[in-house]
Amino acid sequence: MDVSASRINSWISVAVTRKVQELDLSLPHTSCFELPDALFSSDTLKILRLDMRVLFKVPPLKHLSNLKTLRLWSVTFEGDQSTEQILSGCPVLEELDLYRCFWKNTVKVTVSVPTLRTLEISSLHSLRLFRIYAENLISLKYRSCFPVQVLLFGGAHNVETLTLSNDILECLSFEENLHTCLPTFHTLAHLKVISCNYGHTNGALMNFVLKSPNVESLEIPRVFHRDDRLLLNIVPQCLKSCLKTVIIAFFEGYVREVTFLKYFLKNANMLERVTIFCTRNYSTNLEKQNNVYHELQAIRRCIIEFCYSWTRRLTCFKYFAECVIECQ
């Protein structure tokens, strides 16, 4: 049932008085209200998670001096300056998770968080541009449809893992001079593209791979290429020297998918394992899987496994005993 703002504020104030270190609120509320000032004067709070309709507004000269983890879901910010004020008041913040947040009276936000290590952004409403400067960032997950200058900030090149939604690649595919705009991700070891729907690889993904010379694992959704010349004329440095694992989802055995896999097998000198998650229909066609398997093994001897993925179930299986023997 709906919880009144006064009751919520009372709970928060008492918790702060008692030197709370972790505060996690997920409460129903029909209208947006402001949090009590007491919350933003806590010098003991280390973890703050809010999943509720609330106006996240920090009073002037207030700081959360020991806050390390901040997760805000469905909250509302007054504008870009309020966001900057909030994060600048968290001098040791290491983890930031923003999901379905809303900004009033602004479409652009730029913030600087030098201590940030992990950043997750999902479905931000009302914004056209979101920039974060975080020179110590090591993990970034980004799921949204607005322009991706968030990825072009100084410091993103230090990430070790990078997770992008397919929408990101859609946006980037229309970006002029993308290769020039992207930083070089020298420390990036794990690159993953996710999507709720069937995704695709394209020039945008290849640009990320080209700018990531030390990637060891690459995970992407369904393969689709608008321009096969990308596979013929470009061989990223990571393929030549360090790529070890490739994972592809929603595989249906189309020529473009097999061509894509062959490209990696021909050029990835260190490749050890290829994992192929098949669609429901293709997973039952063992003859086609066998044919594709032998096509790929003819190019490079490595572990190639076909898996079945459907409605969040991942059931991996080796479909022929001979394949298991050859893989080993």
What report would you give on this structure?
The chain has about 325 residues and is of the alpha/beta class. The chain has two domains: about 1-150; about 160-328. About 25% of the residues lie in helices and about 25% in strands. It has eleven helices and 19 strands. The chain has a 13-stranded mixed β-sheet. A two-stranded parallel ribbon has the order 2-4.
Helix run count: 11
Number of E strands: 19
Which segments are poorly predicted (pLDDT under 50) over 5 or more consecutive residues? 310-328
| Estimated structural class | alpha/beta
Q: Main sheet: which strands, in order across?
A: 1-3-5-7-10-12-13-14-15-16-17-18-19
End-to-end span in angstroms? 58 Å
Strand content: 25-35%
Shape: elongated
Radius of gyration, whole Å:
23 Å
Largest sheet: 13 strands, mixed
Strand-helix topology:
Blueprint lengths: L4 H13 L4 E5 L6 E2 L12 E5 L2 E2 L13 E5 L2 E2 L2 H9 L6 E5 L2 E2 L4 E5 L5 E5 L6 E5 L5 E5 L17 E5 H7 L5 H4 L8 E5 L8 H8 L6 E4 L8 H5 L3 H5 L3 E7 L3 H13 L5 E6 L1 H4 L2 H12 L5 E8 L2 E4 L4 H7 L1
Parallel strand pairs: 1-3, 2-4, 3-5, 5-7, 6-8, 7-10, 9-11, 10-12, 12-13, 13-14, 14-15, 15-16, 16-17, 17-18
Antiparallel strand pairs: 18-19
Structural features:
single chain; 328 residues; alpha/beta; 2 domains; 13-stranded mixed beta sheet; two-stranded parallel sheet; 11 helices; 27% helix; 27% strand; elongated
